[in-house]
């Protein structure tokens, strides 16, 4: 059984018939006079892993936060598993239950134990009994390799461990999709692997995901689709192979060559 | 040269009376704190509200009361309701009202500051997991913010305990009031007031140390 909090869900569906889970059309957002998103269209199917790349300031994180409406877009429409996140009548707390979110800086609750962090939302939001929440939390912590850290405080863990707890915490709500915002970019290089492994396993189990990441190897290995966001617009998308071998847009080419040149520098 | 012959007997004999006054001071401070804490939470919440009129009312409340001298407020409540509306309030009630107004305004600023010092990512994580704003505040933000505010709340408590000596001017029979009465009846103001000062010190100093010890513990377990 996989990483999903719902036993049995998602293991197969990956590619059979593309069923859209996230449909974003014409998403716009400006902060003051700065237009961060200028009409972003993106559809993500069930079981699909989309890696969102782009230069810093291109609007990746803003877009991700529009999907679960931590940020309210100025225009456009975003529908997640049939729920219109851009409709003001939508019960957002309810809608967010099925959208897992993992941030760059983990944001674990420092006043709770690791186990408490994972149990908190299921207990408070879903009203699960302590016993039920605990069973799920223990299972998920074991899956991310932290079964021995139940009683630790977040600050006692390494960054990689904290991020794995954050992933377990998001999974505890039994999400239909997972949004991960640069999950490894706050980590020391030697700690990114353990987090990427967890994400890869999640993908293998059929979790629908949007991952904002610059981990080119992760993208090549795990992503079904690579989406390049630049200046608030999708300038290019395709399989990682297509885009890495033959980027059509000059800006993509420049961005990737910069990423790659660093990678080769390191490996040579 | 002025030759003063010290005589502590009157002060020592008056100890039971002073202790009685101390009890009043203590009960007053405790009442004020018990009422002020929840009020300050509400005011701090209002100051962080997204609704402008609520935010502004809370701003007006804190700024007005933080700039009014307590003594002015005390004497105002002592004279004005009685003289202009014929409402005669118990001195103790006057003291509680005046102190709660200023203390809650000050504490509201302390609480607001500590709420704002919590990383916005904390609230974001809670809300992203499906919590309502209220659930996120109650379960995630406030427990951390209050822990951070605790040393300041402790400092407010200590200074409150001493500041209650102001209420002697509106005829609350607190420690200071009893000391002043005793001083003029036995005609030993120097000894009696020194003795009263000593009592304030003996009562507040250990509390300060105790609070510091508690804060150390709380900080470690964060």
Give an overview of the whole structure.
The complex is a heterodimer of chains A (268) and B (222). Chain A has a domain of 181 residues: 3-Layer(aba) Sandwich (Rossmann fold). Chain A is globular, with a radius of gyration of 18 Å. In chain A, helix 3 packs across helix 4 and helix 3 runs parallel beside helix 5. About 3% of the residues of chain A have low confidence. In chain A, 47% of the residues are buried. Chain A is of the alpha/beta class and 268 residues long. In chain A, strand 7, helix 6 and strand 8 form a beta-alpha-beta unit. In chain A, the strands form 2 sheets. Chain A has a 6-stranded mixed sheet with strand order 6-7-8-3-9-10, sandwiched between helices. By secondary structure, chain B is mostly helical. Chain B has one domain: MetI-like (MetI-like fold, Orthogonal Bundle), CATH 1.10.3720. Chain B is built from 9 helices and no strands. Chain B starts with 8 loop residues before the first helix and ends with a helix. The mean pLDDT of chain B is 91. The interface between A and B is medium-sized, with 26 and 19 residues.
Instruction: Kindly state the number of beta strands of chain B.
Output: 0
Q: Roughly what percent helix of chain B?
A: over 70%
Could you spell the SSE succession of chain B in H and E letters? Answer: HHHHHHHHH
The CATH topology annotation of the domain at 20-108 and 176-267 in chain A reads as Rossmann fold
The level of helicity of chain A is 25-40%
What top-tier CATH class of chain B fits best?
A: Mainly Alpha
CATH architectural designation of the domain at 20-108 and 176-267 in chain A: 3-Layer(aba) Sandwich
Alpha carbon gap, first and last residue of chain B: 61 Å
Strand-residue fraction of chain B? under 5%
Order of helices and strands of chain A: EEEHEEHEHHHEHEHEEHH
- Derived structural class of chain A: alpha/beta
Sheet with most strands: strand arrangement of chain A: 6-7-8-3-9-10
What would CATH call the homologous superfamily of the domain at 20-108 and 176-267 in chain A?
A: P-loop containing nucleotide triphosphate hydrolases
Average pLDDT number of chain B = 91
